[in-house]
Amino acid sequence: MIKRQTTGSIVCPNCGKLISANSKKCFFCGRRNPGLWGYGPAIQKLLGNGSMVPLIVGASIILYVLSILFDPSALFQTRGMLSILSPSGEALDKLGMTGRYAMANGRWWTLITAIYLHGGVLHILFNMLWLRQLGFMVERLFGSSRSFLIFTISGAVGFYISDMVGIMFTVGASGSIFGLLGALVYFGRRRGGELGTAIYRQVGMWAIILFVMGFMMPGVNNLAHAGGFVGGYLSAMWLGYHEMKRETQSHHIAALAVIVLTGACFVLEIFF
User: Considering Cα of 95, then 63, then 152, then 184, what sign does the dihedral take?
Assistant: First the structure.
């Protein structure tokens, strides 16, 4: 349960100065209702100081297990190494697989739900390993709220592009992961210096290798990868990183809204 704080002092989530918890407006920066009716410090602690990576990994694993349990017979229909322990198409469709078919039927919410679904054990393993590798790095540079926004925006943009081009069925977090790559490339180019140059060169090499591997492997949605990369680069440019401006209350509220939206998208998939 989120606890309220209506007395004492809090740190203004916009300017970082110490203010009264019940202030209607920050004395220093003018931010209205900086305490968010007492919930501001709890939201700051939840989204500003924590990490979204374990939550994304946990949600993806739970949904992968559910996709298997929906149709266990699919486990015995292996069609190659990449399809080991793969859920059936019917199970993935029930949970929110996206693609031209879903969009043609008005299921726009699958642009988000499909990010958390995976087509096999190797698919989810590789994606979660890359998420852990890149996610914590992006969080250190952008903050957890902005990182989650970049992750979600990138995945949705990548899927939207591939859906509109004509990919019939697709799932996976790889578009979002390419979005994290795009955000790091933007950071490296924008910041410059020794740190920026090192990150730009390292992450740029990872991006090239992953793009090339995508064209060498069957069934990979390279359009979603490219769209996710562009979405990540542009959303990072829009949101900024710590050295440009610190995370604000607006970022935390936006991230919380996207978390609620993600849950609502799965509810829509269940009932519609």
Answer: negative
* Shared domain check, 25 and 100: no
Is pLDDT above 90 for 188? yes
Q: Is residue 189 part of a domain?
A: yes
- Residues annotated as catalytic are 174, 225
**CA dist., res. 177 & res. 155, Å (int):** 8
Using an 8 Å Cβ cutoff, are 130 and 138 in contact? no
Mark whether 152 and 125 lie in a shared domain: yes
- Residue-wise pLDDT tens digits, 23-46: 777 766 766 666 665 656 666 665
The count of other CB atoms within 10 Å of the CB of residue 124 is 24
Name the token pair of 3.
Answer: 């606890």
* H or E element, residue 181: helix 174-191
Residue 1 is assigned to a structural domain of this protein: no
Q: Look up residue 219 and give its DSSP letter.
A: T
Question: Cα–Cα distances in Å, from 10 out to 19, 41, 226?
Answer: 6, 7, 42
